[in-house]
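INPUT
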Amino acid sequence: MADDLHPPVTVAITGASGAQYGLRLIEVLVAADHEVWVMISKAAHMVIATETDDDLPARPERLVVALTQRYGAKPGQIRCFGREDWMAPVASGSGASSAMVICPCSTGTLSAVACGASNNLIERAADVALKERRTLVLVPRETPLSAIHLEHMLALTRQGAVVLPAAPGFYHRPREVEDMIDFIVARILNQLGISHRLVPRWGEAP
Ligand SMILES: Cc1cc2nc3c(=O)[nH]c(=O)nc-3n(C[C@H](O)[C@H](O)[C@H](O)COP(=O)(O)O)c2cc1C
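OUTPUT
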């Protein structure tokens, strides 16, 4: 970990709709001087290409350059890991500790994590977070939900993970999509204990 940065936060973007939530989370964490470890699934790249004007490179070594440039990160502040990069710190409990957020989280990854499948680095990193009792936040986006989805969410919650659905509220009167994205990103930051001013906290003046 770089000396002048706050502890790393792992952000995994999987193939549910709402890649913007995960990308904004990376942006805010970089601005807050956190080291950020990024994993983006193959399906997430398809979603990003569908939902945004972005065309992020798939290869980790090129992705890190693209994200570093885009968010003005310090050298080494962002690290990117590939699907089978088993030497990454997130792949083992003996690696450096990091809170992990899967945002958005597909129902596929949700179920794999609930079952401990560990078939790719995102699933393995979440499995490590659970076994090491580290902070793990999953941000699913699907509707309606099946009994399978709900049972997996309950199992993960019982394991100590936080299931934080991408369901923005409207009581802060969002005017733009960005306001709704920040509503969810603010909730994630609350779970991580990272202070922010993205949206006023309940009971605070706007
Ligand atoms: C444009 C697009 C939107 C999708 N939206 C969702 C979604 O909202 N929720 C979900 O669970 N899966 C969604 N999927 C399906 C997942 O991407 C698919 O199940 C994939 O296997 C998930 O893989 P991953 O978990 O490794 O990223 C979407 C796929 C595409 C291409």
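end of record. The pocket of flavin mononucleotide is lined by residues 14-17, 41, 43-44, 46-47, 50, 106-109, 141-142 (CB under 6 Å).
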